[in-house]
Amino acid sequence: MRNGRILISGAGIAGPCLAYWLQRFGFEPVLIERAPALRTGGYIIDFWGLGFDVAEKMGLVPALRRDSCQIDDVRIVDVKGRKTGGFSVRAFSALAKGRYLSILRSDLSRLIFACLGRRTRTMFGDTITGIYQDATGVDVTFQAAPPERFDLVIGAGGLHSPVRRLVFGPREWFEKYLGYYIASFSVENYPRRDAHTYVTYSAPGLQVSRYSLRDGRTVFLLAFASAARLPLPAHDLTAQKDALRRSFRWAGWECREILDALDGCEELYFDSVSQIRMQSWQEGRIALVGDACFCPSLLAGQGSALAMAAAYILAGELARTDGDYRLAFPAYEHLLQPLLVRKQRAAESFARSFVPQTELGILMRNSVTRLMAFAPFARLFMGRFLRDPLTLPNYP
Ligand SMILES: Cc1cc2nc3c(=O)[nH]c(=O)nc-3n(C[C@H](O)[C@H](O)[C@H](O)COP(=O)(O)OP(=O)(O)OC[C@H]3O[C@@H](n4cnc5c(N)ncnc54)[C@H](O)[C@@H]3O)c2cc1C
Q1: Predicted confidence (pLDDT) at residue 377 exceeds the cutoff of 90
Q2: pLDDT tens digit sequence for 138-167
Q3: N or C: which end of the chain has fewer CB within 10 A?
Q4: Is 155 near ligand 1, meaning CB less than 6 Å away?
Q5: Is beta strand 83-88 parallel, antiparallel or unpaired with respect to 206-212?
């Protein structure tokens, strides 16, 4: 196999999935992850479509089902906690013919990573600082480890990918901000629990949801509209908590209690809701995969699944071409780009109604969710969204 030594930057979803398939096809991947260990906690994702197909090929589905979050209902409540909208998740599952589940993103990442066993070398707590490619390979420098030479480098570092920044340009060149900020955290012993129910409350421009996990923790997702990007320093937990307090302090329902819970939390996911749009995902011996090059945003409800599909196809094309990246990278891009353009457009149009900005908008959104109880309406509204117009190729 040519170009066998491949460095993958980022051990989220795409990175470990790519390492698994590369290893299975006979390559020698090395994973580097900035965090000292796999990230835990975080938000719940819905998982279906092409990602489900890849998980099936990896024999992962039983473990995913075992560790999934059972969500029977999405319940939308008003300021007094009374139900005003929502739908049964069974409708989605039926539309996806049972190939649908919800799981913590960190659990999906952990289960994919576990498939690697001990065969893949992993460098936790380090990051790439320089990439220099020539005709025969790529020299990489790291913050901690000594420099090393690889045949190929793949950036799987998500929305803030360092490989994209170093090789293709700053994030601002490729980012499309969709008008929201999103935050997620989990706490133990939150007093209110609703088993198997995703409870959501909206006020104009704000939305907060909670879900009670099996182990006693509660996971929260907070979203707020902001016409412009906020001048917040990256990784500044205090500034992020302040921004959430400013937005949700007067919001009603359980928001005060949720902000109290936030006070004691040390791990917070906080970011803009953005997409990454790039003309090309490759530059010589370097390519990108997952959110790093095509982040569709949470509004697509499928970023993880698409990251897995892309990882599988990238590894498969490298295997099919016997490691010839000059053929494999364009083939990978060619297969996936039309699908991703479509997913990004759909997510962008959903952005207009994701967090309604007026009381009337909330009322209308709640009415639509109630109609989801009727199968023909659910099919009409969600059917197209749940279908992926691409079949995964089979690689030897
Ligand atoms: C609130 C929310 C809800 C979502 N809901 C869904 C959903 O319902 N369904 C769905 O499928 N998707 C959903 N998504 C999207 C999904 O989480 C992403 O699309 C997916 O995680 C992308 O995987 P990735 O591996 O490309 O990037 P990531 O999962 O972001 O992983 C990137 C990894 O790279 C690491 N990294 C970053 N910088 C460096 C560096 N300098 N050096 C080394 N490593 C680095 C990070 O620590 C991380 O481990 C949601 C996203 C959000 C924010």
Answers
A1: no
A2: 999 999 999 999 999 999 999 999 999 999
A3: C
A4: no
A5: unpaired
